[in-house]
Amino acid sequence: FLQKPAAEDCFWYTTFLVLHYLLFISVFQQALNRGIAAVKEDAVEMLASYGLAYSLMKFFTGPMSDFKNVGLVFVNSKRDRTKAVLCMVVAGAVAAVFHTLIAYSDLGYYIINKLHHVDESVGSKTRRAFLYLAAFPFMDAMAWTHAGILLKHKYSFLVGCASISDVIAQVVVFVAILLHSHLECREPLLIPILSLYMGALVRCTTLCLGYYRNIHDVIPDRSGPEMGGEATIRKMLSFWWPLALILATQRISRPIVNLFVSRDLGGSSTATEAVAILTATYPVGHMPYGWLTEIRAVYPAFDKNNPSNKLVNTNSTVTATHIKKFTFVCMALSLTLCFVMFWTPNVSEKILVDIIGVDFAFAELCVVPLRIFSFFPVPVTVRAHLTGWLMTLKKTFVLAPSSVLRIIVLIASLIVLPYLGVHGATLGVGSLLAGFVGESTMVAIAACYVYRKQKKKRNENETATEGEDSAMTDMPHTEEMTDIVEMREENE
């Protein structure tokens, strides 16, 4: 369906790009949930505490991971890379202060205990886990910044190896060391959190060493005009903030869902049980489609309209048509995986029981939410494909309204669906789907707006060019002009 070598380029690039998401969600998060569920304390309480802390951390500081796209689009020199790293250092310090504030202040008590309607034990564990995660966003952002630079230079294999090393380090530390230590009795929450840190450290180290070994001595000290000019911090932040806003709304979606679901008194399950179901089902439901979000990086890396690709991709055979076909095949593959996993009888229950380690009665409560996840690939693919195209044009500002619409649709669904008899985790996942559809619709509208402006500008340029050609045609020839001048001189 794709011509070689374009198919091979896109295939290997995307394969290694999605390994972090696929392996992290399908292997490690399930292992974490299984380990948390196996501790001697109340398994449901531990799942709820860790799920709340992790989702809040991803909302407050997760947008820094989108600096990968800054590295992919803007970093063309050593000076550009220094500016990107400086932004991440400042953002990491702010994140650490914010985590500490949430853990120790009354604001954290209000956000976690009061808003989410959890008991004192779950709230205390959640705030403590949130404090332990204070340094993780900085390490994650540093890793993704260098991953974007490596992906620009087509070192997707190295990025994939770093992701594999991340998962292996986490699983080895988690299974072989921490589960057999005294932490299970003293502080069980440190088991998944220390594993996260170990994996992030290995991934960040691998990517930084890969950058210095393969790229640092190759790229120039400064970017020339042929590369689109030198990137300033202002340009980076202007490009990044709409993507960060979108990611922030994606991250806040889960805390909002947890909030409404935990306070939904019309459901048959308790608040803690409902949040625990969401915590258990989200990584499983996210697995078949989560990697589709990384398709947006294919456009900036391969599209010929991106001037920064001149540094590393002068002979690219990938066209926009190839990218569109590749995106469609990825969506079809994801849809197939979703329906096989979640609609085949007893398959989803077996995944939850055998991999995560919950009991069968709890797994049955997760079946309907998982089936709703089957429809996520369509809006996610549309959003990722069009976002990648807009990133190539550096017109990410038009994406900002989509994040606002997503939150509006999400909250509206969480308010309306309970009146239709939808409660618990089903309410949460259904509202997430509605938010995705609303966001993708707005991204499509923004892309149509940019496309029409581009088409109008192109037509105006063609008209102006034709006018110049016509004017040049109407001018007298050089010989005729010379004769006219000589006749005037003779008459004088």
From TrEMBL:
What keywords does the record list, in alphabetical order? Membrane, Transmembrane, Transmembrane helix, Transport
Q: What name does the UniProt record give this protein?
A: ANKH protein
Tell me what topology the record assigns in the membrane: Multi-pass membrane protein
List the source organism.
Answer: Haliaeetus albicilla (White-tailed sea-eagle)
Cellular component per GO? plasma membrane
Q: Which InterPro entries match?
A: ANKH
Gene Ontology process terms (BP) = phosphate ion transmembrane transport
Into which family does the record put it? Answer: Belongs to the ANKH family.
Query: Which GO molecular function entries does the Swiss-Prot or TrEMBL record give?
Result: inorganic diphosphate transmembrane transporter activity; phosphate transmembrane transporter activity
Pfam families cross-referenced by the UniProt entry: ANKH (PF07260)
Give residue spans, biased composition: Basic and acidic residues.
476-492
